[in-house]
Amino acid sequence: MTVGVPFLFHTEQFVYRNSNLPLQHFQVDDHSIYFAATENKLISLTKSPFGGFVIPQEELDLNKIKRLIEKAVTYATENNFKSIEIRNCPEIYSSKKLMETNQLLLSLGWVIKYKDTTQVLLCNEPFKPVPSRKRRINQCAALGFLFQELSKNDLPEAYELFLQSRANKGYPVTMQLHDLNSEFEKFPDHYKLFAVREKQKMVAAAVTVLVNEELLYYFFAGDDLSYRKQSPSSFLIFNLFEWATTNNFKLIDLGISTENGVLNNGLYDFKKSFGALDSPKLTFELSL
Prior knowledge:
Number of strands: 14
Oligomer: single chain
Structural class: alpha+beta
CATH topology of the largest domain: Aminopeptidase
């Protein structure tokens, strides 16, 4: 499967949006790649869900990719970097191109540092939750829970749910409220906030990113711990699937269920219960 490009995360506007790290851009005609420079490593990319090669939708030229790699290696060597890292997008985004560029990287001595697992819902297939998940969705509907698209003005209320959920699960808080506000302001056509309310109370919320016209990324989410039995997050994901299908998206990326290649079984099983499919997301490294 190949999802249409370009991806928001590959645009110059997004790459340079708020980075405090020095950035390097290498280009060969219409092929390019961005790197962030850390203390001893070039990474494509930090502060983004992924980096990797920016390739035109129409064609992949492996000779241009090889020249990009040579440029990056030369720069890294001359500036005393110890290694170079490329964080790919999930393979389902552009399977054929990634397969070819991955094979080229391996042939040039790069190694797979991490093999993460992304889980996705395909919008051209029926929504197929397991029976227990379906019961919770139906229960939320019977209780009158309401799914809504909200504005960024509701972010503070949603953010409290994000903090609550992450603290409960022991996850780090990767974005502050002012960072989220900034993303909504800079990319108003790409960032959306969805929520579930029980009467007037917000009980689940999620930030999503329109990566392009075919791909929706489920990015930041949380729910009210006192409503875990009803599982409003299940109701949110179901309705998000309906919204994405109605708006002609091809897939919803529910995010990775691994950290540095190590599987989070609880998170993986939760997404699997909605019928989510696995897609590898590889990180390559070259030691210098």
